[in-house]
Queue: 2 jobs
Job 1
Amino acid sequence: MGNMNEIFETSRKTLLEVEQRLDMPRREFLQFCATLAVTMGLPAGAEAAVAKAIEAAKRPSVIWLHFQECTGCTESLLRAEHPTLEKLILDVISLDYHETLMAAAGHQAEAARKDAMKANKGKYVLVVEGAIPTKDNGIYCKIGGQTAIDLVKECAADAAAVIAIGSCASWGGMPSTTPNPTGASSVAEVLGKPVVTIPGCPPNPYNFLATVVHFLTFGKLPEVDKLGRPKFAYSRLIHENCERRAHFDAGRFAMEFGDAGHRQGYCLYKLGCKGPETYANCPSIGFGDAGENNWPVGCGHPCIGCSEKGVGFEKPIHQVARVLNITPPQQYPRIVEEQGKAASFASAAAVAAVAGAAAGAAIMLTRNLGLSHAADEAERARDATKSADKAQV
Ligand code: FSX
Ligand code: SF4
Ligand code: F3S
């Protein structure tokens, strides 16, 4: 019991200190830690470890480079409310070089970068925002007389971790789209080694914060997939967690912007939504702390697949998405398995008509019924993922 009291006393004391340091009520601080722990997919109770790591205030030095981009990634971070970037700068990380936010300019700024790199050799985190132009020896982006290629190589050499933030740095993004006149490339391509990527245009600030806090809490970066994306944020298709998914399954689609279906919040698949082939947690965590449904589809716009190489900025908005992962709801009749043959368009249409579904439902239902054999489904999903991966390499 004595031991428990001691623990409570210590944590009360540190929380009080944090309250003063962050100028943030402790309830809000603990909520922030819990939100980050949930974003990282950590088990219940992990918020205590997160809080402890932040309380300890071992601020890692962060060098943040900007190349070919719109600065939307930084802008989106500025919109994170818990805590504000200002608090982040002052407390969670030590942002020693950031061209947009630092007061220094010119030689002073470059000196700050070199000093921070020297003082924190092997320990600093390098964050890269924007693609790197590689054509014509990289002359299309120079900072302080150095090309982006040289800068990223120089800064990565002694970094403890490299994080590519945004689609531009992760896979080339918007600047790399055809005809890619500057040879815009990703950080991993230029460094010739994998890095952690947080794609999205812009990416969700919580995914960045959670990645940094994971580094603080566990001393290592989170587990990633083969594209370098933290699994906690990019292991699910948007389509799997979309609040409009029930409409997709029932065949209720918006056919035009502003039509009755659109106004009633129907699925945006036929307006070109790329949620079925885009991996990201946008529907689960939303953007900008502005309340429920604050993400593209939630606001009535189809997902353009901004985080997914080969989809975002490549596929026309009017083109319907490949449905990578078909998971029909429980209540779907397993007609194919029971009858041993594929359902006809007429029978599917009849089911749709009986259910009183909209015209589009018949087509979707036929597609789904035609795929409802589990083995077929699995095979198609595997093939689709394989070709998607090929397209991404
Ligand atoms: Fe790219 Fe970030 Fe898109 Fe913009 O800078 S990911 S263009 S949001 O800002 O790099
Ligand atoms: Fe949501 Fe788009 Fe999937 Fe429809 S197609 S359920 S809008 S992610
Ligand atoms: Fe981008 Fe689609 Fe999310 S457009 S922000 S990946 S919903």
Job 2
Amino acid sequence: MASKTARLLALLGSQPVIPVLRISEVKHAVPLARALARGGLKVIEVTLRTEAALEAIRAAAAEVPEAKVGAGTILNAKHFDEAVKAGSRFIVSPGLTRQVIDAAKDSEVPLLPGAITPSEIMAALEAGIDFLKFFPAEQAGGAAFLKSLASPFAGVRFCPTGGVTAKNANDYLSLPNVVCVGGSWVAPDEMVRDGKWDAIEALAREASKLKK
Ligand code: 3PG
């Protein structure tokens, strides 16, 4: 697990913001991944919340070599396997279940599972996982909540997502237990639908300049 965690930290820690994408049409995957990469956000998370998601991962992973494509909203072992087969370089889950942990143990592809409460974090530590998604960040208590986890859980690092925006990203990025944040604000649905790739590139460029 340790070397997989190190790989995941290196990958997600290479940029301050991980775009969390909801891709409804496969044809958007490649231009969207290219626009984000041009703006400096090469690591992207495609959530399995649409019919098109797996095909979108396949297309972006195959056709945009500069992009590092991961899959999000992985809820079970079947999702995990399908996402890996589609070419995902990392897997994100909103929570932490035995089934998802077991799927990750059998795979070379690293897992970023979600945990919020002290008990969930302790369960993650028991499974050998100390890099976690903190979701839904704003709704669960925001940066103040996450900050208060740093003292009892020294050494546990987080990627907060959910309600993170250009306005509040720094509140999280300035915390010592935060590696990066995730958010959908860099690829708004309307801009994707209308093919506003330059505008998305500009949002990505702004986000990529945030300081960790
Ligand atoms: C996620 O899955 O990480 C979140 O849905 C992203 O949340 P946001 O849309 O509030 O950025």
